[in-house]
Amino acid sequence: xxxxxxxxxxxxxxxxxxxxxxxxxxxxxxxxxxxxxxxxxxxxxxxxxxxxxxxxxxxxxxxxxxxxxxxxxxxxxxxxxxxxxxxxxxxxxxxxxxxxxxxxxxxxxxxxxxxxxxxxxxxxxxxxxxxxxxxxxxxxxxxxxxxxxxxxxxxxxxxxxxxxxxxxxxxxxxxxxxxxxxxxxxxxxxxxxxxxxxxxxxxxxxxxxxxxxxxxxxxxxxxxxxxxxxxxxxxxxxxxxxxxxxxxxxxxxxxxxxxxxxxxxxxxxxxxxxxxxxxxx
Length: 281
Hints:
This protein has ten helices and eight strands. It is of the alpha+beta class. Strands 1, 2, 3, 4, 5, 6, 7 and 8 form an eight-stranded antiparallel β-sheet that branches. A hairpin with a 3-residue loop joins β5 (230-237) and β6 (241-246). The chain is globular, with a radius of gyration of 19 Å.
């Protein structure tokens, strides 16, 4: 009965808004309930409406991300639902930076909660020796730079934006600390060179050339000694705004990218990498 009442309410809210001539997408979005308050069945009721309203993938991804503004921040809240990480494979009640990016991508590909969960497994886990993706702690894409350079769902485009001569780079062994030990117990390491846009090249003009929505990851040099390149990730929308799950704000927020990246006290990061979200991979 609760689900039926909720479905009728959503139909009423959305249809009333849609009946208005020239109704803005922002008003349509504002008519929806807050996603972090919804059950799995309620999410399943709403996802098809995004598909109908925004048939173009990039626009759908953008408005799903905007819908999630205000989601409470909690770090490291995605897991495999089995030991050693019992957290859910997918969730929309809380988020951190990686969780926001990947669960929003999963939602943009989906018409239901179950479909979003299946898509999340495809996005968040590596193929095993049998050619299958089985959620486990060791098969998860733990490192953002590994994911965006080797996972076809989130594809690095940094080197298409500027010539390599304008980029900085770091040669690193992921998941290896200075003493040679693993940071995470994965029985895995990867030696790679990551190319990133240095702070001197990050301008409003560069951002304006980006697609409607892209992913952005933030290079943190003090993490290099732990076998980590990135300290944060989020989304850039409309070539101007950062949309991300913010630990300091305690929720998902949208703000001017340049204001965030270059505060008065100086940049927190050494550069960025830009990546695309793929509809199919």
